[in-house]
Amino acid sequence: MELNILWFWIIAAMFIGYFVLDGFDFGVGMSLPFLGRDDTDRRVLINTIGPVWDLNETWVIVAGASLFAAFPEWYATMFSGFYLALLLILLALIVRGVSFEYRHQRPESEWKKWFDGMIVVGSAVPALLWGVAFANVVQGVRLDAAHNYIGSFFDLLNPYALLGGVTTLLLFFTHGIVFVSLKTEGDIRERARKLAVRSGLITIVVAASFLLWTVLAFGSLFTAVFAALAAVALIGSFLMNLRGSEGWAFTLMAVTIGLAVLTLFASLFPDVMPASNDPANSLTIANASSTPYTLQVMSWTALIAAPVIFLYQGWTYWVLRKRVSRGTIEAATH
Fold first, then answer.
1. How many CB atoms lie within 10 A of CB 279?
2. Which tens digits make up the pLDDT trace of 307-331?
3. CATH code for the domain of 82
């Protein structure tokens, strides 16, 4: 396999890691109005992701840096053309991170209420806009001969892209609620499971519609296989949640998100940025990649660094595997 093709799939794997890990962070943040009946409940929810949210978020930094190094033309076109959308994602991530750190700095309920609202917004905006961005990449955008985006921000808000955004929003929301049921005890765990059942039904309908549209409009045999497997995993997660098997439900949700991202990348291949106005202007794996020497250096670096990163993150989750309860929060408060 040529190195530029290899790095196309490595970047796909990085975005899978980001959407699976930061996806449930987004879902937990969006669940505050639904599961946080009081400040203790909200603290329980935040503490389920408190030790790991920033670690999960680093995946997007690594993915962006790898995209810049391996496919600089793709990076330049996407980050300039989608500048406003990506800026909104960045601002939302900043607002969310600040809110996690500052909400407990003062005891006033109004202070905490403002930061809780910012956590919800800072989680929902990226969850929506990442889907909009990737759906537009798959669908294709208007590019000139120099591979510059020549559309507007509102051109990105088309029906297919908006459906993609709603799909990622619901997938992350359900993923986060299932994670809450996996990481908590007592009443909040039961309420999270019931909410995941309701949101899961809606997610199945919306995600199936988006994946079907993707396969019919832009897909191939491989795309259809990945989409079908994603649908099976999503239904399996829903059934496991009905049975109260939170571990299997969470695992299958992670598989669903991973297969959904693979569906999008398989729909792209061998393009990386299709031009909707003229196929001759499209960016492909061949004309958007770095030199073979650059890709070779990146490959050796990844081969050395990746096992260390995986071991460290796996160890972190193992150490912090215990459930969070209201009793734990109340004892810490007293």
1. 10
2. 998 898 889 888 888 888 776 666 5
3. 1.20.1630.10
Measured distance CA(125)–CA(38) in Å, rounded: 24
In a domain, 240, yes or no: yes
Is residue 43 in a domain? yes
Range of the domain at 200: 3-67+75-139+152-270+293-333
Number of domains in the chain: 1
More confident residue, 158 or 222: 158
What's the distance, Cα to Cα, between the start and end of the chain in Å? 59
For residues 251 and 254, give the distance between their C-alpha atoms in angstroms, rounded to a whole number: 5
**Cα dihedral value 236, 239, 241, 242, nearest 10:** 180
Tally of CA atoms within 13 A in the half-sphere of 185 that contains its CB: 9
pLDDT digits (tens, 9 = 90+) for 3-49: 999 999 999 999 999 999 999 999 999 999 999 888 888 999 999 99
d(CA 136, CA 123): 21
Please give the Cα distance from 58 to 66 (Å, whole number).
Answer: 12
| Residue whose tokens read 């459906």 | 163
The partner residues of 275 in beta bridges, in order of sequence, read 141
Report residue 177 as tokens: 């609620």
Strand partners of residue 271: 284
Q: d(Cα 323, Cα 288) in Å, to the nearest integer?
A: 46
Residue 145 covered by a domain: no
Alpha helices in the chain (DSSP H): 3-30, 32-35, 39-49, 53-70, 72-81, 83-102, 109-139, 159-183, 186-218, 221-243, 246-268, 285-288, 292-319, 326-333
Nearest-angstrom CA–CA distance, 203 and 241? 14
Residue 93 CB contacts under 8 Å (≥ 6 apart), including other chains: 57, 122, 126
